[in-house]
Each structure stands twice: as structure tokens, then as C-alpha cells.
Amino acid sequence: MDGLLSLVIWAIVLLIVFVVISGLRVVQQYERGVIFVLGRLTGAQGPGLFWIPPFVSRMIKVDLRIVTLTVPPQEVITRDNVTIKVTAVVYFYVVDPATAVVNVVNFMQATTQIGQTTLRNVLGQSELDELLAQRNKINHELQTIIDEHTERWGVKVTAVEIKDIELPATMQRAMAKQAEAEREKRAKIIHAEGELQASTQLAQAAGVIGSQPSALQLRYLQTLTEIAAEKNSTIIFPLPIDLVQPMIEMMQRHAEAPMQEQVGRPHVTYSAPRTDPVSPALVG
Q: For the domain with range 67-171, which CATH number is right: 3.30.2290.10, 3.40.120.10, 3.60.40.10, 3.30.479.30?
């Protein structure tokens, strides 16, 4: 009888130990355990070691670390009818483990789908130039919209970044031509501004040189010095017009003198004698 009693006691002890050990759970620091007892939510526990009623309880572990979710390439037609392929990255984490388990079947898949849909909708309402130039604004808009949908799932979206934009080959060539034309335009404007500034400085320099005649001679000598330094075989020396002007006036006076003499002489008309033969009838 004592042996049977001791056997029963050992069986009870082993059963209690088994129940205690089967109810022990360990959750990591970055995890939480959502507990269901008889199908009823009792809350989230962890981290560390804790005990739950075995056989009637179920625990679901939820990771609280930030998840990096790559949105697959999406074909989007922008507002100006340009077809592009866009890839984005969504950063999010779980703020309420119980809500993430109870309110949605799979919060990872749900976040992926809402990210793809929102990406197509937002980019479809934007023009290509806006998408390329104002990427931060579009990223913030995507993050706001996705976070509004995932908030009731216990998920917080921290950032949405457009990773890559793939343009058609024809659009790339058109944009390259546009960029080249823009660079040529800027180069011409800069060249024209340089010419304007140079002409202003030259006008000021001409005024200074014109006020001092000796400055022009010094400029000639400086030019000869620069030309001689290059060992040229031919030197073209500019001759000041002031030295040539007296010679030109003298030549003009000599050319006008004969014309004035011809104008002063009297006009004489000469008639040539008649040389026609005399008719015989008139002579008789």
C-alpha cells in the first residue's frame, strides 16, 4: 500500500513538473509574446522568462525591430503620360504587438501591398519633372499616407524612400538633348556677359588713352615688346592716323588744284572748215 501511494505521489510530482516546464516561455529583448488563453487575448508579455497555462494557451512572438521592406518594381504612368518603373523601400516597426496580431492576418504582407498601391497612386498624380526634382516631398507624402493605413494595425512607418527610377530609352535621350541645350544656353549667356563687361572696360581704357596721347605710344611699344618676345619673323606696326593725316590733306589739295584751274579758264568753241565737194551744176 505504501509503494502504491509513493508511486502516485511521484506521478503527481512528475505531472506538476511537466506542467510547469511546458508552460515556461522565453522571449528575446527585441520580441514580445502575445498570449491567448482559451482563445481570449490576455495581452503581450516579455522580454525574459515567464509562465503561461499549458495546453489551453497559445503564444505568438512579434518582432519589434525595424523592418526594411523592398517594394517590387512598379510600372507607373505619370500625370504627363510617361511610363516609368519605380522601386521603393519602406521602413516600419511594430508599436503594438497585440493589435498587429489581432487586427490583421499578416501585417508584413498587408504593409507590402499598401506600400505598392500607395506608390502607384501618388506617383501617378505627379509629373516626371516633379518626381525627379522634389523626391523628398514625394517620400514624405508616401510615408504619411502609408502610416495612416498601418496605424490601426499597430505598425508605425518611419520612412519611405524612392530607391530607383527607370526611364524609357527614348525619354533618356530626350532629357540628354534638353540638358545639352540648357548647357549651351548657359554658355552663350556667360559669353555674352563676358563680352559686355569686356566692352565696358575697353571703353574706359580708350577714354584714358584718348586723354593722354603719350599713353598710346607706350601701348605701341609694349605691343612691340610682346611680339618680339615670341621670335616672329613678321612684325606689323600700327601707324597712328595723326601722322598720316597731314599727308592725306596735302594729297587732296594737290588733286583739287588742277580742277580749279580748269574751272577758271574761258570756254572757247572751234568749228572745223567745210570740206564737202562743190557740185558742177552750182559752179556753172
A: 3.30.479.30
